[in-house]
Every structure is written in C-alpha cells, then in structure tokens.
Amino acid sequence: MFVRRSAAVLAATAVIGTAFAPAALADESPGASPSQAFPSALYGSTDPTYDGVWRQSLALLAQDSVDVKPAKKSVDWLVGQQCESGAFAAYRPDPSAKCDARTKVDTNSTAAALQALEALDASDAVTGAAVKWLKSVQNKDGGWGYFPGTPSDTNSTSVVIGALDAGDTDPKDVPSKDDRTPYDALMGLSVPCDETGGGAFAFQPDKKGKLAANADATAAGVLGALGEGLDTDPDEDGAGKASQCVGGHPFTIEDAAANGALYLAGAVAKNGYLKSSLPGAEDQPDYGNTADTVVALAAAGRTADTGKPLAWLEKNSGTWAAKSGPAAYAQLIFAANATGTDPRAFGGADLVKQLGATGPAATSSDASTAPADGKNDKDDQDNASDEDDGGVSLWWIIGVGLVGGIGIGFLLSGRNKKQQP
C-alpha cells in the first residue's frame, strides 16, 4: 500500500519540470539546507515536511516486526506529533503548538501512525483517539480520501482499514452515514472484469466515473480488501487465489481481493517488477510498488507468484533503498516478512541493520541492529538516507505537495501515474 515519497519536493519537481507546480507551492515549499537541523529522534536525514510521520511510522513498525525495540525517543516523537483531535499531520515542526485549522492533518499519516503505535503497545488514549478521528472523517461511500472531505481513493481507504484492524476494530462494523462500509467503497473501485485492466483497483474514478487500472492502488486495495495492514503474514490457505477474474452478482470483497491479486500476478509475471512513468520521462522500475505487490500477493495466498519480483528486489533494490531511506527499508522488510524471507539476509544485505542506521540506535538484544559503540553512526545515517524520499513513490510525495499547494484533495500523482507491468 501504499503507497508509496520525497521530502525534497522542490528538487524532485525540478526533475520532471516545474511547469505543473503552482507558484504558491514553489513559494511555500521548504528549501532544505545542509545546515537545517531536524529532530534527532526522526528516522532519515532529509526534510520531513511531507513524510515525517509516514516514514517514522513505517520504520518503527518494521523494527517491531523483526523483534527490534525502537529507541524510546523515536516512539515519543511519533506520539508527540498527534493533535488533540487524535489526527496526525505529515509533520509538525513544533509539537508544542496546538493544532488549528491550518494544520493539514490527513488520513494516511494518521493510519500509518496508528498501525505503528498499536504494534508498540501505545496507550489506549493515543490509539483510541486516532481511531475515533478516522471514523469521524469517513465519507458517505464508506471510504476515505487523503484529506478529510476529499473523495475516497483506494490507497487511503486501504491504509485506514489496516489501521482499524490494528486497533481491533472490524471495518465491517464501521458504517458511514449512508450505511456504507469501507469494503463497499473498495468494491466500488474495483475495475469490472469485462473492462480494460479488469480485476485491478482504480485509484479513483475519473471525471466521467470510469475506473482505470492502477497497479499501486491495486497493491494497496488487495491488502485493504483482505483487512490487512502494512506488515502482514502470508495466507497459507490461498484464500485470495483465483485463476480468472470473477464478476457478476453477488460481488464480494473477497472477490475484489482475489481479482486484484490475479491482476498483480500478471503485472509482474514477465519482468518481475512494475514500471512507472510520467509524461516526458522514461519508464523507470518502480521499486516501492513492486515491494508492495509482493506483500499483497503473499497476503492473498499467491506465494508462488512472489518468487520472481522478490528475487528482482533482492538483486536490484539496494541503491534505491539507500537513496530513499527508512520507509524504503521498511517496505523491503515487509516484503521479506510476507514471504518468509530473512530480512537480515536479503540479497546479501541486512535490511534491519540498514534501517537502524537511518535513526537513533534501537534497544535490542540483537547486536546486528546497532553499531558496536551502541550509538547511531552519523556517517551511516547520512549514507543510508542521502536523497531520502521516505521510501515510497517519488511522484506520490510530489502529488502531496501539489495537494497542499492548491487545495484540491488527494492528487498523489504516484497513485494516478501510468503504471506498466
């Protein structure tokens, strides 16, 4: 799931051309400087404005998943990012300042934080407030958009479902004002079998209401439809495995999950990875969404279909992860966990140690998770987090910047970008 996120938005936007970044965004976006100091409790070394809570949440969740106890100050920092309402924004530079109408709280940051804090046994007051806020901003169709009040999308709805499940709340028991559940929203975003890309999930309907297959949204949607969070175990029963797309009536959430997994299996069958592109740019391997696809396939019981993309990630993801930072390492750890692969021996790399080098030294009995001196190696952190984009799709965070700049909801271009198998 999501998916997929550069804090250095201006630099990233320059790569693809500044033409579609409004002047307001260019003026208001932070310019990270080498001397700019960020919280020492934060994972990653680059500007956290657009992904601080997200990357911190994924890093903490990944460490917990491999029995590494994160540094207390890192957990405390995440808790301190919560607003009085229970919501989280992408990043609050001054947690002591009260949240107000200008604080851009969002569902994705809140859901990711909730998943991490539930795993770390945070207080019920913290997690309960987050669940309550997420319920309060549910759309009438049963789903969620990135910002409260924006149209539902597959990625946001799915990450919230995972958070509700982590908080011991059955999504089926969370009806909207129109008595629609989160699963109803996801089924409405499943591309019909008889249309192009049938079985996949769309990010959102287009202006004419048409659904277009989106691999990123599909990886998120499969997990959401299965009621799973960011970190999940493989389904040994193969409940989500299907040999052909299932449509007609009745159409169930289980059908939607199986159809999405079938689509993903086909998308990575040839090359072992997904591709992404933007107008004017060459197609690029999509490492983050490929990792998410491995998790989704495993969760759906299609473990045989994870072999090729997992092997590709083990061979090729090292440079990407080093540049992308903590959330990228977390995504790879989730992919390893979902397939029963040792994340400490992932294509010859120790993902756990590499993730640990991007933040404060963890409290752990495993010496491989921390430097020998018991302190975080700043050089390792700088190397591992150089050009840190939070580990998810670069274009996703550019989209977040656009959203914040022009106020039109969840434009996350990584969710709407052209994706190819």
Q: What would your notes on this structure say?
A:
The structure is a single chain. By secondary structure, the chain is mainly α. The chain has 18 helices and 5 strands. The strands form 2 sheets. Strands 4-3-5 form a 3-stranded antiparallel beta sheet. It is globular and about 55 Å long. It starts with 8 loop residues before the first helix and ends with a strand. Mean pLDDT is 82; it is low at 1-35 and 365-418.
Q: How much helical structure, as a percent, in the residues? A: 40-55%
Low-confidence stretches: 1-35, 365-418
* Helix-strand makeup class: mainly alpha
Major β-sheet annotation? 3 strands, antiparallel
Oligomeric organization of the protein chains: single chain
Give me the side-by-side strand order of the main sheet.
Answer: 4-3-5
Percent strand equals under 5%
Shape: globular
How many helices does DSSP assign?
18
Number-wise, the strands total 5
